[in-house]
Amino acid sequence: MSALDRLEKLPDWPARMTAPVAAAYMDCSLATFLKRHGALGVKEGGNTYWSRAQLDQLILRQFDLQQVAPAASSPYDSWKAGRQRA
Asked: Are the CB atoms for 22 and 55 separated by under 8 Å?
């Protein structure tokens, strides 16, 4: 099962991503992603990961935006908020 196949089963993009997933997130080919953003990856063991938050910051700068509008809350967010009140 590829990284992108596993991604389809997740409710949202992961906080850290391998190169194929990060390239899909940035909507470019793997080669283009590695050429543009390869140096931003962080090695952990035999893997390299890219942070979704860091990629979001790149997008904000690219479009000269201050912040991203908050996403609609997920069922997990609602569950988590309810647990924090208790």
From this structure: yes
Q: Are 40 and 54 in contact (CB under 8 A)?
A: yes
User: HEC string of the chain?
Assistant: CCHHHHHCCCCCCCCEECHHHHHHHCCCCHHHHHHHHHHHCEEECCEEEEEHHHHHHHHHHHCCCCCCCCCCCCHHHHHHHHHHHC
Walk along the chain (86 residues) and give the pLDDT tens digit of each residue.
887 787 788 888 999 999 999 999 999 999 999 999 999 999 999 999 999 999 999 999 999 988 755 666 677 777 777 776 65
- Work out the angle at residue 29's Cα, subtended by the Cα atoms of residues 22 and 61, and round it to the nearest 5 degrees: 60
What residues pair up with 42 in beta bridges, in sequence order? Answer: 49
- pTM, rounded to two decimals: 0.70
